[in-house]
Amino acid sequence: MTIHDARIAIVGGGLGGLTLARVLHVHGIDAVVYERDASRAARGQGGMLDLHADGGQHALREAGLEEGFLAIARREGQDLRLLDPDGTLLLQEDTPDDAPLDRPEVDRTALRDLLVDSLPEGAVVWGRAFERATALPGGGHRLHFADGTTAECDLLVGADGARSRVRPLLTDARPFHIGQNVVESGIPDIDRTHPELAAMVGRGNYWVLGTDRSLSAQRNGDGRVRVYLGFYTSEDWLTTCGIPFEDGERARAALTKRFADWAPQFTPLIQACTDPFVPRPIAMLPIGLSWAPVPGVTLLGDAAHLMPPVGEGANLAMRDGAELGLALAAHPGDPATAVRAYETAMFERATAVARRSADIVKILMSGARGLLEFFQRRAGQ
After folding, report:
1. Other residues' Cβ atoms within 10 Å of the Cβ of residue 234
2. For residue 226, which phi and psi values (nearest 5 degrees)?
3. Binding site: residue ranges?
4. Which pLDDT belongs to residue 102?
5. pLDDT score recorded for residue 121
6. pLDDT at res. 47
7. Which residues does the UniProt record annotate as the domain FAD-binding (predicted)?
8. Which parts of the chain fold into alpha helices (H)?
9. Under a CB-based contact definition with an 8 Å cutoff, are residues 219 and 202 in contact?
């Protein structure tokens, strides 16, 4: 069987899965993406991403979408303000208008739309929540979806994120909590509704780091500022802290109290949030995770190497998608060899990035001055 004859199913229409589908399409290889969302507009896609030259940007070049990316990239999103909880501004980086696009910010929704629009009609099947796969007698798998439908494939790619239902076909590994929980909310149209807070946050990222808590705000391309409140606590804290996250008014008041001992300029960011408060436990997969080859199945992105959210996950997922697509195109007569080559390189790449991500988490948890020292050491290299 050649790759051009194979039925390729990609479970998960996130950035990694869509990148794979696009790279395959560029090389004349058909694939179908099965996505649980009912449509591309079914839910928000989150905040901004900084796409690295050797990560997301590399993948988009291989996908033939560099020009489209440059049209939606936000150079000014690279701006950074770093503060201590006592209100001391430790670092302010303002990006010049002619600065290189080394790590520009891009809206997740705009990036996903760019990828979806680059695919042929029918390449993404919306409203298909994957439940399980069963092996077929002659090879390949039958996919079972929550709506009762099924599909068959010769190659199954799990791009279905942290709670991947494809992963158990390859490994028993499960994500574990890293001792951090995040509560996400947002302030829509901040320039109009809260111009003083808009000026304080600036054009990019605003970080306030303590040793037991953090508060960050991120300017998005749609005029919204997303606010993230981090708590360095056990996994059960979200259910034992007593904060009624489903009740916006009461949650806002309770979260404000949690930061009442910080400088007074920070709590107005919490009080201005009108988006729902969404609690998220932060987990990761074991560093160095690998598995023995399983015919007709592989993983990419968070399904393969979930890491803490420190700016690497989406870049690595897109790089995975591009590299898997290129490997399949390079071995059209032997998909199994292509998958083995992809996995071997992916394991090595992911292990290095996971170790770096774990180190960054430790630095972030050391507080703003610890991060400042890290920046200064890196600048002096």
Report:
1. 13
2. -90, 135
3. 43, 50, 108, 302
4. 66
5. 94
6. 77
7. 6-211, 297-355
8. 15-26, 56-62, 66-72, 108-117, 190-193, 195-201, 237-240, 248-258, 267-271, 302-305, 313-330, 335-365, 368-380
9. yes
Query: How far, in Å, CA of 283 to CA of 264, rounded?
Result: 31
Q: Which pLDDT score, from 0 to 100, does residue 272 have? A: 98
The overall pTM is greater than 0.85: yes
C-alpha distances (whole Å) from 6 to each of 3, 140, 343 are 5, 10, 19
Q: Are 209 and 82 in contact (CB under 8 A)?
A: yes
Write the pLDDT tens digit of every residue in 297-309.
999 999 999 999 8
Q: What's the DSSP call for residue 74?
A: B
Segment 358-373, tens digit of pLDDT: 999 999 999 999 999 9
Q: What CA–CA distance (Å, rounded) separates 173 from 292?
A: 13
Residues 6+ apart with CB under 8 A from 285: 173, 174, 175, 176, 304, 305, 306, 307, 354
Could you list the residues known to form a binding site for FAD, using ranges: 50, 108, 302
Q: Which domains does the chain have, with CATH numbers?
A: 8-74+101-174+285-365 (3.50.50.60), 176-284 (3.30.9.30)
- Helix-then-strand count for the chain, H and E: 13, 17
Question: What is the predicted pLDDT for the residue at 101?
Answer: 64
pLDDT of the residue at 381: 54
Backbone angles phi, psi at 334, to 5 degrees: -145, 75
Structure tokens at 273: 């949030």
pLDDT per residue over 90-144, tens digit each?
999 888 877 666 677 888 999 999 999 999 999 999 999 999 999 999 899 999 9
CA 104, CA 51: separation in Å to the nearest integer? 6
- How many Å apart are CA 272 and CA 261, to the nearest integer? 18
For 225-260, the pLDDT digits (tens) are 999 999 999 999 999 999 999 999 999 999 999 999
Burial (CB count <10 Å: 0-12, 13-18, 19+), residue 346: buried
Per-residue pLDDT at 96: 80
Strand order across the beta sheet in which 141-145 lies: 130-135, 141-145, 150-153
Annotated binding site for NADPH: 43
